[in-house]
């Protein structure tokens, strides 16, 4: 691909070393000394690039591919042109992710916005009662409140606000403009720009005097290796805690209501809204713009299709879609029947016009 100064190419990794790092098998070991410097889409890949394919839909892109190597799985091996060395993997997607992390480590988390040697910028405000371990970085205009604790290797971006009493673990990144309050944050957590963590949730008691606010005195607990996207909001609990489980990844522009509990290794895509007190199991995947009702349970390993409306409990391991969400095979059958009836009416109308 055409390189830019934001993510410059790597100094070089041999195909043999790259294969070992990614857990792949280099089909022709005579190419082991060839050098890879960057990643690229299949169609635009040039010498020095590595790419990957996941399906036969990439067949046309391969006609212009000049990559130094390509990751693929065994069923697609016959598609690869003879001039491109193959890195055979059980999961091409996983292998490519590992390769990308090796070649462009600066692309894995928000970068430091400012230069300079000072770990704590003189333009940041750090309350005298805050406790910072060695190696903490605080960029300009960040505010670190009273009684905050931050672990070594963590970086707080410019303009970020860390509220009183917050605990942040080691090797985290809190990007510019994010706000974290009333929260306990584990190790190796990434919170992207503009995220809002720990504000009070939407809780009111309607009555003759209007909407009376219900006090929100819970916390947000974010476990290790969680990543939270830009402008996502996670409300603190009302009286219980809002919990995000270990290694869960949350996209940009997601709303997580008060008292929600999300399990480990979940994936939640952009514009999902999760209403209060919902419990989501481990390994759950929720597609973009889905809405999840409050006070329901989504079982371990369930998958929710994009733009679905989940009104009731979802059993473990099930795939649901539609509004209201129901088993995906039922939803797709209904869609197919609707389209078939629509096509039939359109043909009848066309015949009558003739």
Outline:
With 354 residues, the chain is an alpha/beta fold. Helix content is 13%, strand content 26%.
List its traits.
single chain, 354 residues, alpha/beta, Udp-n-acetylmuramoylalanyl-d-glutamate--2,6- Diaminopimelate Ligase, Chain: A, domain 1, UDP N-Acetylglucosamine Acyltransferase, domain 1, 2 domains, eleven-stranded mixed beta sheet, 3 helices, 26% strand, Hexapep, lipid metabolism, UDP-3-O-[(3R)-3-hydroxyacyl]-glucosamine N-acyltransferase activity, UDP_GlcNAc_AcTrfase_non-rep, EC 2.3.1.191
Structure commentary:
By secondary structure, the chain is of the alpha/beta class. 13% of the residues lie in helices and 26% in strands. The chain has an eleven-stranded mixed β-sheet, covered by helices on one side. A ten-stranded parallel β-sheet has the order 8-11-14-17-20-25-28-31-34-37, with no helix packed on it.
């Amino acid at each position: 691909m055409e390189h830019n100064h934001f993510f410059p190419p790597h100094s070089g990794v041999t195909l043999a070393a790259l294969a070992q790092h990614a857990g792949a098998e280099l089909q022709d070991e005579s190419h082991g000394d060839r050098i890879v410097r960057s990643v690229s889409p299949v169609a635009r890949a040039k010498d020095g690039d590595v790419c990957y394919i996941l399906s036969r839909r990439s067949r046309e892109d391969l006609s212009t591919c000049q990559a130094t190597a390509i990751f693929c799985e065994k069923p697609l091996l016959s598609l690869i042109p003879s001039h491109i060395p193959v890195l055979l993997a059980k999961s091409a997607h996983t292998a490519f992710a590992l390769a990308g992390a090796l070649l462009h480590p600066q692309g894995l988390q928000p970068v430091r916005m400012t230069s300079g040697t000072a770990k704590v910028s003189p333009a940041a405000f750090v309350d005298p009662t805050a406790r910072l371990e060695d190696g903490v970085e605080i960029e300009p205009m960040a505010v670190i409140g009273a009684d905050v604790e931050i672990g070594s290797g963590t970086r707080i971006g410019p303009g970020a606000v860390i509220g009183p009493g917050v605990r942040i673990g080691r090797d985290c990144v809190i990007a510019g403009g994010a706000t974290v309050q009333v929260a306990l944050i584990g190790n190796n957590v990434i919170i992207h720009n503009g995220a809002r963590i720990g504000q009070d949730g939407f809780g009111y008691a309607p009555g003759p005097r209007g909407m009376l606010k219900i006090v929100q005195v819970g916390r947000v607990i974010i476990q290790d290796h969680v990543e939270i996207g830009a402008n996502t909001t996670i409300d603190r609990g009302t009286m219980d805690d809002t919990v995000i489980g270990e290694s869960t990844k949350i996209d940009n522009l997601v709303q997580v209501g008060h008292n929600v509990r999300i399990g480990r290794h979940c994936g939640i895509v952009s514009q999902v809204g999760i209403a209060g007190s919902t419990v989501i199991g481990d390994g759950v995947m929720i597609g973009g713009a889905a809405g999840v009702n409050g006070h329901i349970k989504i079982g371990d390993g369930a998958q929710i299709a994009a733009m679905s409306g989940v009104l009731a409990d979802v059993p473990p391991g099930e795939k649901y879609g539609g509004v209201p969400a129901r088993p995906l095979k039922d939803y797709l059958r209904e869609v197919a029947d609707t389209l078939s009836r629509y096509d039939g009416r359109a043909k009848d109308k066309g015949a009558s016009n003739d």
